[in-house]
Amino acid sequence: xxxxxxxxxxxxxxxxxxxxxxxxxxxxxxxxxxxxxxxxxxxxxxxxxxxxxxxxxxxxxxxxxxxxxxxxxxxxxxxxxxxxxxxxxxxxxxxxxxxxxxxxxxxxxxxxxxxxxxxxxxxxxxxxxxxxxxxxxxxxxxxxxxxxxxxxxxxxxxxxxxxxxxxxxxxxxxxxxxxxxxxxxxxxxxxxxxxxxxxxxxxxxxxxxxxxxxxxxxxxxxxxxxxxxxxxxxxxxxxxxxxxxxxxxxxxxxxxxxxxxxxxxxxxxxxxxxxxxxxxxxxxxxxxxxxxxxxxxxxxxxxxxxxxxxxxxxxxxxxxxxxxxxxxxxxxxxxxxxxxxxxxxxxxxxxxxxxxxxxxxxxxxxxxxxxxxxxxxxxxxxxxxxxxxxxxxxxxxxxxxxxxxxxxxxxxxxxxxxxxxxxxxxxxxxxxxxxxx
Length: 437
Description:
Blueprint: E1 2-4, H1 18-21, E2 34-43, H2 47-58, E3 63-66, E4 82-83, H3 95-124, E5 131-138, H4 141-156, E6 163-167, E7 182-191, H5 194-207, E8 211-213, E9 218-222, E10 227-231, E11 234-243, H6 254-257, E12 261-270, H7 275-281, E13 287-289, E14 296-300, E15 306-313, H8 322-333, E16 342-352, E17 359-363, E18 366-373, H9 379-394, H10 400-407, H11 416-435
Organism: Pseudomonas taeanensis MS-3
Protein name: FAD-dependent oxidoreductase
GO molecular function: oxidoreductase activity
């Protein structure tokens, strides 16, 4: 059995983002050429692929990773840089499938995922501006009530980091805006420079013996006991295959691709602010995120720029002018930034699943083919968890976590490739209208 796909033309550059302009290392890997053999071939050079490669290499397996563009070219190198606890949304919905104990395990893994990033940064001494401190922002009283429940549950799970509930009159401790009615501070979550993290992990993987290839789009996969992964100039033969393309899977595997919806998310970065300006916006240098369907998320960079993101688009079409689209959203939160210039604007695709739980498992008809995708906005931490779980499963180690994720079914979005995005866009419009009621 084999699969062929026509890939879009590759690019040798990252998106023109603040992150690409402030990388602290330059890595260049060659295109795949000739025929190579490894225990595992990984398709996709984002956080999922890189961390799976690290986990496997540390277990003594030989690994080849192929990336269609540049390492971390997709969401891993473009996202808002928020490192927030948790995986999935409303994991209680899966109790009928994995039981109450399984739901509790998912919640604990959502906390462990952040610690995996913490340990990765510390172990490999990756300079990525990792900063601790995060605040959930309540847009209405019901959100604040939900935060109180979240706080109680986190304490019951043994969460070891500081949590603090804020009322409306306390919000200026964390954000210079009158838009919110309360918040939940979490000192176990935070923010970082995602592209520098990914490049640091790529360097770590290479040091562990992983062979990495860029500008090597996969054109065909021959499945079987030995998998053959074809690119324009080379072939990889492997005992195991990992598909870690997420929103950029395209038609490489239509069955998997139908279960993840690419959705556009956008970020703008201001010019550097003065210390006084930055302190007035985010006094404690936290990452912040509100609770609306079309959420806002924002933070300060290491050089005191405001990075403001959000506006998830399900239409499949990017705004013609990202800064023009995002700036009014920023000014709705911080109207006094009207005279501040926008230096960078960029966007990219995140992968969303119908039930908002990361999809981690193996193909039913190909037991040696694994995948991880559909992080639904929690990718920085969940990708690192996925790498750990995939590494355990492929190495033949008992992995209750992998088994739990693999047991959860994921529906295929209706409408096929061309209609699923418009259909979901209509559904999300309904949810946004409900917020106004």
